[in-house]
Design the sequence.
């Protein structure tokens, strides 16, 4: 039985990840809050921080690569300046003031 997370706890989690990885958080407060909300909902539904932009594949094992920060986040941030959801941005990208765009989902690239 996993404990439930509040919006504030999830927010702290994203801040901790950003600090640790030296990333920036999405500066648009509405967009950011929606993603934090989605992560919180996923945590409380599945027991782990499944990516808020992806669907579950039915088990924790299958979803493990898509637990935030997902295994593709580093490569996406290097290549595009932000992760698939655009929750995390490289500091460079954030400072450029560019808008995140839709990027391919690496989850199914090797499938
Ligand atoms: S795409 Fe972004 S928000 Fe989604 S799991 Fe990866 S790092 Fe987290």
Sequence:
């Amino acid at each position: 039985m996993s404990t439930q997370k509040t919006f504030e706890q999830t927010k702290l989690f994203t801040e901790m990840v950003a600090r640790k990885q030296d990333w920036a958080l999405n500066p648009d407060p509405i967009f950011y809050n929606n993603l934090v909300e989605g992560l919180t909902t996923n945590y409380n539904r599945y027991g782990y921080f499944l990516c808020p932009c992806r669907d579950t594949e039915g088990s924790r094992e299958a979803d493990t690569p898509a637990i935030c920060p997902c295994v593709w986040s580093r490569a996406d941030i290097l290549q595009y300046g932000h992760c698939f959801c655009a929750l995390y941005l490289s500091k460079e990208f954030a400072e450029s003031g560019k808008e995140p765009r839709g990027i391919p989902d690496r989850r199914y690239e090797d499938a």
